[in-house]
Amino acid sequence: MPPQTLPPPPSPSSAASAPSAEAASEAVPRIVPVRRTGRWAAAVAVLVLLALALDSVVRNDAFQWDVVFSYFATAPVLRGLWLTLWLTAVVMVLGFALGALLAVLRLSGNPVLQGVSWGYVWLFRSTPILVQLLFWFNIGALYPQILGVSTTRLLGPVAVAVIGLTLHEAAYAAEVVRGGILSVERGQVEAAQSLGLGPWRRFRRIVLPQAMRSIVPPAGNMLIGTLKGTSIVSIIAVQDLLYSVQLVYHRTYQVIPLLLVATIWYAVVTTLLSIGQRYVERYYARGTAGAR
């Protein structure tokens, strides 16, 4: 008979690998996701409360939504809205122009100019805007005439609103601009000086583009705040959005629906401004880690 060949015995490594793999698979713990019961319960509770609140607003006849829709786009309301937008734009432009000048004076090496700028910011930030408007509205008691012209004729309610809001806005804009300029690294300015750039070119090409990253977010918040803050001019009979709806509900006694008209218009405009602010921020944040 021919000799029978036996299969080779298993190698120690192959024999040990099988049980070790099984042991390893049994040793690895199974990953179980965390059950966030509290988070889901809180979310459901908040959604239920929001649904109840929305239902109470929609189904409450006291809101008089039919009256709201009937007055929403009427001519007096639109004229008041236009004056509100015009006031906001004029005050922001003039306020930031004056604020930028005050910021430059504050950063100058002249102690007198620094003191004047600091005193201006301190004074107008320390006084309520309502007090400032009432003061300018009654300026004729202090100066009946300016350059031979009657103060009451020279400064009407709209002019008083522009002056009061601009001076108040400039105090805050000065600090915003100053903080943006100080956020630029000193090495950037020194590098521009080494290249032979003049002061104006350094500011326009080097300092300002980098400072805008820090200026735009608070400036956007100031813009929205100014839009809503213009409602205070109704106290001196400027026919802005709020004063326009007040004239209507003083005649019709429909206070709640007319206030809702003003509220919805403010919400619409502030939403549009917030969207624009986001795109402006993204534009000036190009090339930074936080740009998105």
Short overview:
By secondary structure, this protein is an all-alpha fold.
Q: Keyphrases for this structure?
A:
single chain; 292 residues; mainly alpha; two-stranded antiparallel sheet; 12 helices; flat
Descriptive report:
The chain is mainly α. It has 12 helices and 2 strands; from the N terminus they run H-H-H-H-H-H-E-E-H-H-H-H-H-H. The chain has helices at residues 12-27, 37-59, 65-71, 75-107, 111-126, 129-137, 151-154, 157-182, 186-194, 199-229, 241-252, 255-284, and strands spanning 145-146, 149-150. A two-stranded antiparallel sheet has the order 1-2. Helix 4 packs antiparallel against helix 10 (199-229). The chain is flat and about 90 Å long.
Question: How do the helices and strands line up, and which of them pair or pack?
Answer:
Elements: H1 12-27, H2 37-59, H3 65-71, H4 75-107, H5 111-126, H6 129-137, E1 145-146, E2 149-150, H7 151-154, H8 157-182, H9 186-194, H10 199-229, H11 241-252, H12 255-284
Antiparallel strand pairs: 1-2
Helix pairs in contact: 3-12, 4-5, 4-8, 4-10, 4-11, 5-8, 6-8, 8-10, 9-10, 10-12, 11-12
